[in-house]
Amino acid sequence: MAKILVIDDNLDICNLLKRFLTKKGHDVETTLSGETGLEMVKKEKFDLILCDFKLRDIEGPDILQAVKEISPDTKLAIITGYSDVRVAVEVMKKGAFDYVVKPLIPDEILSLIDRAINTPTEKPAVVSKDTKHSESKITKTPKGDTEYIWGKDSASKNLFKEVSLVAPTNFSVIIYGESGAGKENIARTIHDLSERKDMPFIAIDCGALTRDLAGSELWGHEKGAFTGALASKAGQFELADGGTIFLDEIANLSYDIQVGLLRLVQEKKLRRIGGVKDKNIDVRIIVASNENLKEAVAKGKFREDLFYRFNEFTINVPPLRKRGKDIMLFASHFLEKANQELNKEVKGFSKEVSDLFNQYEWPGNLREMRNIIRRSLLLTDGEEVGLTAIPHEVVHAQKFAFKEEDPGIPENSHVAEHLQEEPADLKVIAANAEAEAIKKALLENQYNKTKAAKQLGIDRKTLFNKIKLHNIA
């Protein structure tokens, strides 16, 4: 049994989840307000918080940050509409346990709760007798237990060639790639193939470091260095000594932190905040960014001297849509993982789904694919995943992606056949388009009909009539 808090400004969702999860033996409390939810977290210990991404008073990312400070052991999962999935994935990078997409699927919620209960909270690393526990994320990459696999397409072969070439050296590396493309896994692979493989690998999301605490988190501090510094603490660079440190979204670091980082890179020494002695540090630095750092330098966002210190070797991770025949290789990998997680034996994907996956743009890359496959597996009862199990927005993505350079779906594609089942009558096409626009507005506003009506430029009564007319569930 888990102690669960549901924070959602939709009363129907709160009541639905409370009734359903209570019947499953869980202790559930609900609130429509983010502020009230945080007050409840201060008073009670919860195992899991299910929090709506968009609340009226506080947004999900801000609640996550507050919960991490109030109750670090409490896991938080984001509830979101499909249009916000990419943003929800970014929130996961900042510490959210997972996310679920509306409309909510009972088995998916139960699976999430089961994983939350059975996944131990990362314990801080003990550094030495005179230092307290650190909040740093230290991992020695387990062999054969990664979400990233190497494909056979030319893009994958070129990527692995570059990784294999730079891994045995001590070069600093800049990894460019879209969100979810696997930049951290590339950094882990470089570490695993280097002479530092038996030493710590520490991954840091620079976007999650607040300006006030970044220095303490990276360099560490001595007792009494500032208000609240009740004990000495080793920073993440100190903990990574001898190993590799991965700085994701490096351009998010503030200017003063960039100055301190430049000193560390040049002199290979660091000094804790409030300290009087320097400590020699031997750390290989790998950084990642989804924006061009040279352009960030031109904008004055990133120090030029620091850029040239890091720019000893550059790796560009191709987005999933550019991985050719490896797209289905990744899909099969995630299917196998999802089968193990959900205790299912789904053997593969239908031809229609394979065609769809090869045509889809995958804006969220590998993270998006992993979550779509996990979700679709919950809806699959047979031996293969069919189109009906794939989210509506993914199935019809090509239908609404009108780009001049878009070659479209091949005429012989099974997906094309599926989409061309639409009637050719102009009135029917217009009605279908109106229905799709209403569904999209409802999704984007998390089924809040008042907000959806405002977005569509109609009144609430008209929206209700059109929902009834188009038989929208």
Structure description:
This protein has 473 residues and is of the alpha/beta class. It folds into four domains: 3-118, Response regulator (Rossmann fold, 3-Layer(aba) Sandwich); 138-316, Rossmann fold (3-Layer(aba) Sandwich); 320-419, Helicase, Ruva Protein, domain 3 (Orthogonal Bundle); 426-469, Arc Repressor Mutant, subunit A. Helix content is 44%, strand content 13%. Strand 12 and strand 13 form a beta hairpin. Mean pLDDT is 81; it is low at 122-147 and 400-426. Residues 332-359 form a coiled coil. This is RteB, two-component system response regulator. InterPro entries: AAA+_ATPase (IPR003593), AAA_lid_NorR (IPR058031), CheY-like_superfamily (IPR011006), Homeodomain-like_sf (IPR009057), HTH_Fis (IPR002197), P-loop_NTPase (IPR027417), Sig_transdc_resp-reg_receiver (IPR001789), Sigma_54_int (IPR002078). One of its GO terms (molecular function) is sequence-specific DNA binding.
Unreliable stretches (pLDDT < 50, length at least 5) are 122-147, 400-426
First-residue to last-residue Cα separation? 32 Å
In percent, how helical is the residue content? 40-55%
How many beta strands in the DSSP annotation? 17
CATH-defined architecture of the largest domain: 3-Layer(aba) Sandwich
InterPro entries: AAA+_ATPase, AAA_lid_NorR, CheY-like_superfamily, Homeodomain-like_sf, HTH_Fis, P-loop_NTPase, Sig_transdc_resp-reg_receiver, Sigma_54_int
Modified residues (4-aspartylphosphate): 52
Domain Response regulatory: 3-117
GO molecular function, one term: sequence-specific DNA binding
Précis, in short:
This protein is an alpha/beta fold and 473 residues long.
